[in-house]
Design goal:
With 349 residues, this protein is an alpha/beta fold. Helices cover 40% and strands 15% of the residues. The structure holds nicotinamide-adenine-dinucleotide and 2'deoxy-thymidine-5'-diphospho-alpha-D-glucose. 2'deoxy-thymidine-5'-diphospho-alpha-D-glucose (DAU) binds next to helix 6 and strand 8.
Length: 349
C-alpha cells in the first residue's frame, strides 16, 4: 500500500460500470482516501455496484453533474475530482441526443467550473472514440488487427457519433480550461472495457445474457469491426496512475493491446458457453459504425510506468461470463426491456 496524495476524492459516475470498478480499486488499495460518489443513478447506474463498501470511507450522493448547487456542495469538501459520469452508449445516442449534450458537455462544464473555484485536481475520463476510426487492411494477416496505425495523443479529433462528439467536446473544454485558467487537469482516452458489472446493452454482456436467456446473439453487419479490449481493472489502475503521477495538462491513452474483431469475440463467447460458433443472428449495422480502434499506449507505459495485468483476454472473458451466469439477479429484470428497445430498430439480416 502507498499513501495517496489525495484524501477526499469525488468520483462522478461511480455507480456505473467503470466508475464503480475505480471506487473499489481505490477503496481496496488506499485506505487513507475518502470517496464521494456523485451519481444520478440513471438506467446505467446501480447502487448495488458499490453497496458492499458504502460507509465511513465511501459515500453516495445521488445527484446530477449538471446541477451546479450539488456539484458545489461536493466539490467544497474535496481535493480531487475523477470524472466518469456520462451517457455512454453509441446506439442510444443515435436515437436521442439531449441527454448526451446535457450530461457529457454541460455536466463536464459544471464540474470544471467547480474544480476551478476550489482549485481541485481534475481527471477527465474520456474515450478513444474521440479520434474517429482507423482503417484496417484485408491484406494484412488477421485482417490487420494489431497492425497498422494506432491512436496517440497527437491524433486529430474526428468523432463519428453523437456520443463520441459530445465526449470530444468535453475533452476540448477541459483542455481550454487548462490553458486559459490553469485548471489542474489531465485527460485519459481509453479503449473498449470489459468485465463484470457492465450494462447489458453493451456488446459482450448483451451476447452473454442473450445466450443465458435462450436468445440468439446479435452481430452488427459483417462483424469485422475491430475493438481494442481492456479489462476494466486495468483501466482503473491506469486512471489512478495518471491522477497521481501524470503531468498536468497532458492526455494519456489507456489500452492493453487487445485488438479483436467482433465476430471473433462473439465466436469465443459462444464456444466458451458450449454453443456452436455460428449460432448467432446478423442484424442491421449501426449507422456510422466505426471500423477499427487501436491504442498506442507507449506514453503511459514509458512516462508513468503503467502496465496492464489482465493481458489474457480468454481468461478475462471466461471470468466475465461466469460473473453474469452467477449474478442473474443483477441483470435479469432489465433484459426484456433492453432487447425490446433494440428490436424497434434492429432487423435480423
Ligand atoms: P455507464 O453508462 O456504465 O455508467 C455511467 C454512470 O454515470 C452511471 O452510473 C450513471 O448513473 C452516471 N450518470 C449518467 N449521467 C449522469 C449525470 N448527469 N450526473 C451524474 N451521474 C450520471 O458508463 P461506463 O461504461 O462505466 O463509462 C464511464 C466513463 O468511461 C464514461 O465517461 C465513458 O465515456 C468512459 N469510457 C467508457 C469506455 C467503455 O468501454 N465503456 C471506454 C472508454 C471510456
Ligand atoms: O472505445 C471506447 C468505447 O467503447 C466507449 O467510449 C463507449 O462508452 C463504449 O460503449 C464502447 O463503445 P462501442 O460502441 O465500441 O461498444 P459497444 O459495446 O456498443 O459495441 C462494441 C462493438 O460491438 C461495436 O463494433 C458494435 C458491436 N455490437 C454491439 C452490440 C451492442 C454488435 O455487433 N452487436 C451488439 O449487440
Amino acid at each position: 500500500m502507498t499513501e495517496s496524495p489525495y484524501k477526499n476524492i469525488v468520483v462522478t459516475g461511480g455507480a456505473g460500470f467503470i466508475g464503480s470498478n475505480f471506487v473499489h480499486y481505490v477503496y481496496n488499495n488506499f485506505p487513507d482516501v475518502h470517496i464521494t460518489v456523485l451519481d444520478k443513478l440513471t438506467y446505467a447506474g446501480n447502487k448495488a455496484n458499490i453497496a458492499s463498501i458504502l460507509g465511513d470511507r465511501v459515500e453516495l450522493v445521488v445527484g446530477d453533474i449538471a446541477d451546479a448547487d450539488i456539484v458545489d456542495q461536493v466539490a467544497a469538501k474535496a481535493d480531487a475530482i475523477v470524472h466518469y459520469a456520462a451517457e455512454s452508449h453509441n446506439d442510444n445516442s443515435l436515437k436521442s441526443q439531449d441527454e448526451f449534450i446535457q450530461t457529457n458537455f454541460i455536466g463536464t462544464y459544471t464540474l470544471i467550473q467547480a474544480a476551478r473555484k476550489y482549485d481541485l485536481r481534475f481527471h477527465h475520463v474520456s474515450t478513444d472514440e474521440v479520434y474517429g476510426d482507423l482503417p484496417y487492411r484485408e491484406d494484412l494477416p488477421g485482417h490487420g488487427e494489431g497492425e497498422g496505425e494506432k491512436f496517440t495523443d497527437k491524433t486529430p479529433y474526428n468523432p463519428s457519433s453523437p456520443y463520441s462528439s459530445t465526449k470530444a467536446a468535453s475533452d476540448l473544454i477541459v483542455r481550454a480550461w487548462v490553458r486559459s485558467f490553469g485548471l489542474k487537469a489531465t485527460i485519459s482516452n481509453c479503449s473498449n472495457n470489459y468485465g463484470p458489472y457492465q450494462h447489458i446493452e453493451k456488446f459482450i454482456p448483451r451476447q452473454i445474457t442473450n445466450i443465458l436467456s435462450g436468445i440468439k446473439p446479435k452481430l452488427y453487419g459483417d462483424g469485422k469491426n475491430v475493438r481494442d479490449w481492456i479489462h476494466t481493472e486495468d483501466h482503473s489502475s491506469g486512471v489512478w496512475t495518471i491522477l497521481t503521477k501524470g503531468k498536468l495538462g497532458e492526455t494519456y491513452l489507456i489500452g492493453a493491446d487487445g485488438e479483436k474483431n467482433n465476430k471473433e469475440v462473439l465466436e469465443q463467447i459462444l464456444t466458451e458457453m458450449g454453443q456452436a460458433s455460428d449460432a448467432y443472428d446478423r442484424v442491421t449495422d449501426r449507422a456510422g459504425h466505426d471500423l477499427r480502434y487501436a491504442i498506442d499506449n507507449t506514453k503511459l507505459r514509458t512516462e508513468l510506468g503503467w502496465e496492464p495485468k489482465h493481458t489474457d483476454f480468454e481468461s478475462g472473458l471466461k471470468a466475465t461470463i461466469d460473473w453474469y451466469r452467477e449474478n442473474e439477479d443483477w441483470w435479469k429484470a432489465e433484459k426484456e426491456a433492453v432487447e425490446a428497445k433494440y428490436a424497434e430498430t434492429q432487423k435480423v439480416l
